[in-house]
Amino acid sequence: MTDLLLSDPSTLARDEGYWQRIAAQYDVEPGPINLEYGYFGRMTRHAGATYQQHIDAINRCNSLPLRQHFDDIGSVEIRNAAAELLNVPHASVALTQSASASLQTLIRNYNRLQAGDQVLVSDLDYDSVANAMRWLARQRGAEVVELSHPHPVTYDNLMQSYREAFARNPRLKLMPLTHVTHRTGLVMPIREIAALAREHGIDVVLDGAHALGQMEFDLEALGIEFAGYNLQKWIGAPLSLGLTYIAPARIGDIDPDMADSRFALDDVRSRAPYGTPNVPAWLTLPTVFAEHKAIGGAAVKGARLSYLRDLWVSQARDIEGIEVLVPDDPRLYCGITSFRFTRHADQAAMVQRLLNEYNLFTVGREGSACGPCIRVTPGFTTTPAEVQQLVDALRQLSR
Ligand SMILES: Cc1ncc(COP(=O)(O)O)c(C=O)c1O
User: Fold this and answer.
1) Owning domain of residue 170
2) What does the alpha-carbon distance between residue 68 and residue 136 come to, in Å, rounded to a whole number?
3) Which of residues 235, 264, 291 is at a domain's end?
4) In the chain, how many domains are there?
5) What is the mean pLDDT of each run of 10 residues along the chain (399 residues)?
6) pLDDT in tens, 83-119
7) Whose CA is nearest to atom 4 of ligand 1?
8) Is the Cβ–Cβ distance between 154 and 326 less than 8 Å?
9) Which atom of ligand 1 is nearest the CA belonging to 100?
10) Which atom of ligand 1 is nearest to the CA of 180?
11) CA of 309 to the centre of ligand 1 (A)
């Protein structure tokens, strides 16, 4: 805590003593160097033990605490804590089991789309989110407009591509917007795109899966009224937890869940898919939120991840045969960044070589209009020496 009080995030991001103490809070299986924290960020030992205690307690005590405390009181307290994490009114947040559950519900139950309208999906959106948009368009007789992002991408050509897409397609009504794309790690200028969308009467559903916990943001200031998040990536929660955000003034534009009759029509919790939640995971959230704050929150986590990213990207940019896909514009990047080997056609094979020959675990990503790539995502136990091993491997494999 003293470190936190004394240092600003960018200084703390470089303080290896601080990060060694953080890393000591995690159990890490010996094995390949993990540069794929984008799937699951890892719980601390303490969070894992707390989760296990809640599993055991619920199993021992069975339905009594669920019915007498959790359903009416405990779940509301935890939901409120989640809203405080997002810095939004309690009544605008519902807990769900994943970002996918949140986003699919927002899309499926969006009730303003009509026959003849258009929806926009892009090559950088998450597949299931884009598929949900296509599904909605089919159901309502709307048209799907597919947008490919410019490459190489800059702030200006990105904004221009949205400006042109909105101008070319005056019937657009709805679009997903991915805060941090899982394909390349590109960070979208959310506030600017959302403002442009609003000028054109287009509603935005924000996919914040990779943003929460590593980026600081204010949803109201961003102009976002619908959003879905998960908590297992950068918040450090157990798997199986997500959040739905609906701005209170827009609750009527998302229908309640088809199966729900527990909550009032204007209660955001009726917009979460019905089902018994993973109660022990929910009960672990206060511990996880306290840990998130203690580490320095998204400001410090994001600064550390970006610092580790800069360590390898700054060197990789000078390696012939390596193309880094995300620019160094601070508005457009975070800790996750993808690259490709330009002299090797098969990026999936190179992912395998990084693992087999260099003990480095990364992940191949396809689907961007600019082609397949390899995603690198450090975590809170990643060291600069591990990142340097990646750079050394890139130097050798790029030839
Ligand atoms: C950009 C993006 N959106 C949505 C999701 C889905 O999140 P969840 O697995 O919590 O449903 C992911 C998961 O990796 C993601 O990367």
Assistant:
1) 56-291
2) 39
3) 291
4) 2
5) 72 97 98 97 97 97 93 94 97 98 98 98 98 98 98 98 98 98 98 98 98 98 98 97 98 96 95 95 98 98 98 98 98 98 98 98 96 98 98 98
6) 999 999 999 999 999 999 999 999 999 999 999 999 9
7) 209
8) no
9) 11
10) 1
11) 21
- Domain assignment present for residue 24? The answer is yes
State pLDDT tens for residues 275-301.
999 999 999 999 999 999 999 999 999
Q: Is residue 181 part of a domain?
A: yes
Instruction: Please spell the DSSP secondary structure of 227-286, one letter per residue.
Output: EEEESSSSS-PPSS-EEEEE-GGGGGGBPPPTT--SS-TT-GGGGSPPS---HHHHHHHH
For residue 176, tell me if it sits in a domain. yes
The alpha carbon of 87 and the centre of ligand 1 are apart by a number of angstroms equal to: 21
Same domain, residue pair 180 and 231? yes
Residue after which a domain boundary falls, among 257, 291, 325: 291
Where does residue 184 rank: exposed (0-12), middle (13-18), buried (19+ CB within 10 A)? buried
